[in-house]
Give the backbone structure.
Amino acid sequence: MGMVFTRTQVLARVQEVVASGAPLIAAGPANGIAAKCAALAGADLIISSTLGLSRSMGFATRAVGDFRGDRSLALHQTFFEVVPDTPMIAGLDASDIFSLDHGRLIERFVAAGVSGIANIPSSQMFGDEFRAGAGATPRHGIHQEAALISAGREHDLFTVGLAYRPDDALLLMDAGADLVIATCGHTSGGSAGYPEQSYDEATARIAAVVDAVKSRDPLLPCLGHGGPFNSPESTEVLYARTAVDGFYGCSAFDRIPIERAVTEILRQYKTPWHEGGAR
């Protein structure tokens, strides 16, 4: 069974890791076995969200409807059974049409034992019109995500803001985000990854968000995510070219490693019988 951490406790753990000089690692696993392994390997935070459901089906990350938070709640409850002592953050869809009462939504997750919330998935994934909440459906967009973060702080939860743009990062900070994930977009690589970005393009996008955050509050931790950053070696580039304090991995920590591991072990099982071996 999992543990519930107060916001103060999560902040202390995060600050301790950052002060030590080690990278702060947040994992966004798609299923229980990936969450369990991430925790065993030393992930500092486990973030659940419906973005993992498509990966667990073998597809690339994409948003899945989360009506009243039911799907993300079920995923969190699975994680809670197999992650014993790592803070678990619930990614919540601030624009879900059945969850616009963010206080009520958060209370469901507090009762289930979350230690924090994040604006994951984000309207920023779907282009500027949706992000702005413009047109016929104004009750979505980045302003709704800021309201979600603010509601999380009102419940004294650790809050994580995912930002594609510097101005969105500052908005989420103003709402009370304790940590910012600077993303350059979906992760590339593997059999179902998104189109490749160059390191130059990806680091420029992430650095713009991180620099905006650090100019406002140099001590607020920032993680990088997405694009070509899908392996330990690739994060060396991220750390060298930006001021991030660590890394948030989703496909990088489950889909891509699982594809490699299962493919390799199956190939080994398909090798010819050893001489003298049983058939």
